[in-house]
Model the fold of this input.
Amino acid sequence: MPAQVPPGPDNPLGTHALRLSIGSVLIHGTNKPWGTGRRVSHGCIRLYPEDIPELYQLVSKGTKVIILRQPVKLGLKNDRIFLEVHRGENVDYYQEAMKLIKVRKQLSRIDKRKLSRVLREKSGIPEDISR
Done:
């Protein structure tokens, strides 16, 4: 990335950017929302264009940021269970997924075929694994 990116619709940082203490890492919007949550940036954290202005207004300079690297994530939304799996090194994906599913007490609600497919594909996209 150049030191400065001119404003406009082609700006890959979107409308707002927050610089972290690791100087080359930003939390920013994007002009390509399909890349949000995927490994397509230069180490930055992309947010959807509609979310970054809200975050920008909520945080102040010096706010502590913790970056977690979790190749397996589980989420619940509208009574559905979503699993997101990213490729990583030395990860037992099945064990990680099962640990999260059991902690959230969702084992009886998952579709094991969907779970297997998501673990096999490792697309990095949240996938519905509900029955």
The two ends are 44 Å apart (CA to CA). The beta strands are 17-19, 26-28, 45-46, 72-77, 80-85, 127-128. The chain has a mean pLDDT of 89.
